[in-house]
Structures are given as structure tokens and as C-alpha cells.
Amino acid sequence: MIDANLIFQYFPNLTEQQQAQIRQLGPLYQEWNSRINVISRKDMDSFYLHHVLHALALAVEAPFQDGDKVLDVGTGGGFPGIPLAILFPNVQFTLCDSIGKKIKVVEAVSQALGLTNVTPVWSRAEQLPETYDYIVSRAVTELKNFMPFVKGRWSKSILYLKGGDLETEISDCIKTCRLQRKQFECREITRLFPEPFFEEKKIVIIQN
Predict the structure, then answer these.
(1) Is the dihedral of CA 5, 10, 12, 17 positive or negative?
(2) Rg from Cα positions in the chain
């Protein structure tokens, strides 16, 4: 497993508590993944690069403020929500997934880390009653399918982690969901982290 020090290279100003929580992530997910497969087993070898650092690309780009509410849709085992909750302890994160066993992992990891700003929810996003300032997600589905899940659920912006050539996908989303091109921005993650793994990966930012 890649050492947690990879994270500290890019985020050198974390508190001692945040550093300890980041270090705990690897062993916690290794333990839980042996019981409930939430991360590809072979992917655990690159856990901090493929999952933690990927999630934290949003920490660089996101304009989260203390007191904001963020919804992580299709969080799986807790990505990108749990690493973001570590970095933003005064932001409230709701981590939502429709698969109960994945939310069980989110609950256990959050408790082990002492994260009081994480609310795990076993539900589909479209069934949630609340509105959030931001929505984050990691490649749950095509954007044109994703947007109806969160319609009316966000007030500021969506930050969506996705790979590949996204121009056609964005165009399809604009047409299908009746949005405007000026609402969309696509940012390359290699601008933030020049690791080869991120060469095809982007953050799609959708403004309300």
C-alpha cells in the first residue's frame, strides 16, 4: 500500500489530528475491505493515490466554507466524502449510497476516525428531503443520468470526478437536462497532482 506520506506532500499544513486520521484510513479500509468488498482488492495497493488523493482533488478546488452542507452521492465506502470530511472538520457531510453494506463501512470508518461531521445515509439521492450547498460525487454514472438524481437538492455547485473525454458527455447533459454551457467547467487534475494516474481524470464543476 502506498504510504500516507503521499498525501502530506500535497497537503503539508494538516493538523496532527488530520495527519493521524489520514494515516488511519489505510489500515481501516484494508480491514473492512477484507470483510465487505468496497474497493477493488488489487486497488488497495494504490489506496492513497487512487482513492484518497483523488478525493482530495476536490479539497483544492472546492470553495467550502464553515457551516456548509455537502452531499456525497453514491459514496460507496466513503469517497470522496470521508477524506474531505477530514480536511474540512467544520463542514457537514452527508454520505449517501443505496447499498446498505457500503454505508455500514462508512459508519464504522467515520466512528473509528472520530468524525463528528459525517452523516451516513442508506438511501437513493432523489429520496432525500434536504437541500445542500454542494454536491460531490465520483463517476457514479453519465452526467445526463446523474443530474435528475440531484435535481432541486443543491444551491451552489456540483463537483463531479470523472475521467476521459467529457465534451460529448457534457453536451448530452446540457441537451437532456436543459442546462447551459456556461454552467459547466472542466478542470484537469494533473494541474494539481502531476501523477500519471490522473492524466485522464478531471473535475466537472456545475454551477447552479
Answers:
(1) negative
(2) 16
CATH 3.40.50.150 corresponds to the domain 5-207: yes
Residues ≥6 apart with Cβ < 8 Å to 146: 73, 137, 140, 160
Q: Which three cell numbers stand for residue 142?
A: 453519465
Domain ranges of the chain: 5-207
CB contact set of 59 (below 8 Å; sequence gap of 6+) = 11, 83, 84, 87, 88
Query: Taking the model in full, what pTM does it have?
Result: 0.95
pLDDT, tens digit, for every residue of 7-56?
Answer: 999 999 999 999 999 999 999 999 998 888 888 777 888 999 999 999 99
CB 141 within 8 A of CB 112: no
